[in-house]
Fold this protein.
Amino acid sequence: MTSLIGIKLGMTRVFDDMGRDIPVTVLLAGPCTVSQVKSMDNDGYQAVQLAFGERKEAKANRPLLGHFKKAGIKPARVLKEFHTTEDLKPGDEITVAVFNPGDRVKVTGLSKGKGFTGRMKRHGFHGGRASHGKKDQLRAGGSIGASSDPSRVFPGIRMAGRSGHARRTVTNLEVVRVLPETNQLLIKGAIPGPRNSTITVTKLR
C-alpha cells in the first residue's frame, strides 16, 4: 500500500549533509487502518478503504458504528478509498514506513479558503488604467457582454465569487525525511491547505 491519510502540521526547514537549507512541510501521516476491502466480485473494482484519526462513538451514527464494528476497529474521523491490487484485510495497519527518503509523491488537499473575492484577486485581472478620469473603475472587471443580443451572460464568465477551498493536487514532490517514531513525513516544498487540514499522500510509481 503506497497511500496514506494524514494532517498538515506546518512548515519548517532542515539542512542536508552539505549544509543546504531545504524548506519542508511536516505531515502527520497515519497510522491508517484498513476498514474495508473492495473486490471485483462484490463491488466491481479493487480498492482499499483506509481509516484515520479518532472519533468518539457519540459523534458517529449507527451505520458508521456498524461499519467500524464489522471491520473490528475503533471509530475513525476520516475514511478514504485508494485503488490497489495488494492483498490486505480489515484491521491491517499502514504506517509511514512505506515511504523512504527520496521517494516522489503526490499530495492532495483542500486549498485555503479566501471567501468572496473580486476579479483581480480571483482571476488575476490587471485592472483599468489609473489615469484620464478613471475614478473608481481601477479594479472593475469591465464588460461581460450582456447587450441586447444575447441578452444574457454566458456561463463561465470570470467574475467575482468564492475562491479557494478547492481540491488541489501537487505532484512530483520529494520525501526528505521519514520519522516512524512520530509518524511524520517531511516533504520538500509547500502543499495545499491550512494547518491541521486533512491530506492524502500517494507514492508515485
Observations:
- Residues 3-121+167-203 form a domain with the Elongation Factor Tu (Ef-tu); domain 3 fold (CATH 2.40.30.10).
- The CA atoms of residues 14 and 20 lie 8 Å apart.
